[in-house]
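Posted in: Protein Modeling Q&A

I'm a second-year student putting together a small comparison for a lab meeting, and my supervisor asked me to include a predicted structure for PCI domain-containing protein. I've never done this before, so apologies if this is the wrong subforum. The sequence is pasted below exactly as I got it from our records. If anyone can share the structure token output, I'd also love a short note on what stands out.
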Amino acid sequence: MSIDQQQVLLNEAKHAVNEKDYDSAILKYQQVINDQSEEIKLNKKLQFQEISIIELGKIYQLIDKPQDLYNLINDSRNILGNFAKSKTAKIVKTLIENFDQLNSLDLQIKSTKECITWAIESKLIFLKQSLQLKLSELLYKKKNYHEAIKIINDLLREYKKLDDKSSLVEVQLLESKIYNALRNFPKAKAALNSARTSANSIYCPTVLQAELDCQSGILNSEDKDYKTAFSYFYESFEGFNSQDDSRAIIVLKYMLLTKIMLNLIDDVNNILNNKNVLKYKSKDIDAMKSIANAYSNRSLKEFENSLNLYSTELKTDLIIKNHFNALYDNLLEQNLLKIIESYDCVELSYISKIIDLNLQQVEGKLSQMILDKVFYGVLDQGNGWLIIYDEPRKDAAYEASLELIKNLSNVVDLLYEKASLLN
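Accepted answer (user: helix_wrangler)
Welcome! Here is the predicted structure, written out as tokens:
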């Protein structure tokens, strides 16, 4: 096949894509990829093949064909050895990233592992490292944290030997996210501090800096330092927004979360009226606004209705879910205290009716509050009563006596030591 013929095929394939005739486009791109003729120069042939492979990957992504994309990656390895290492890395990474928009995480992980094995066999070290970072990110999404952290530890050793600061930032940031998911906050903070240190010594792209700020905000939120968290989330939002990155709306939700946790509902409305935020109006933002209003009204029923109505928007993100669970518990606690404050003894069924929750939930929460010493009382489950006691007074004389005895004991010990020296 001549250069002109291949060029015609590529043009026809592009036109077919524009016309949404994807089957025809796929056939034409495959013809270019599988062409075995030696009528044209190798460089030109490789250029056409590169274009065809990448465009074919885009089509499979567009028409939601993950299995065909997986097959394309496998078949492409037969000709990728003819490309320069940098071109090979670019093509493989592009094809693997095409899976990101498809609901096929397991297939993407399988393909990435196979590509890593192939990269090792072909001695493509930098491609192997890049794919390992991608694999650990995919395992993190799949919540396979322990396997992901093993890969991260190997990558950290390799990148530290190479003194590759830009790659170190990405690896350490992902390490922080994984440890945060494992609820190991000291290690998550240490990894984030290392990532920030590495980022300070190089030029850090805007999006990567926004990711670092977002992770800082998340860790500060876990410490319940919501004011500091908001400032980090704001910086992160500005970064993502300036690059038209889709993650801006996620960070915007985190910004609203911090204001809700601080019970600054007016600030929530002010943020939503900001001109940079108006374009992000969606069901996600409506969900946050609904929760803010429910919390402001101290209405447990409204809060529950919001959680049920916007279940997808509020429960798929673990960070928002965890904080709203704490918020719900706090609101439930306040409502229960308000109901029982004027009683010495009250029926559990009455509390359940007033707060509009089933009896088992009410019993469980009240027993937890008693154990946490939120109030003093006892559950009489035989009669179905809650008996509330006054807060016991601390006897100051008892504490003072213990302190006096402790001091006297120390004096006697010192006198005994000195007496031993004299002997």
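A couple of things worth pointing out for your meeting: Residues 259 and 276 are 18 Å apart (CA to CA). The mean pLDDT is 89.
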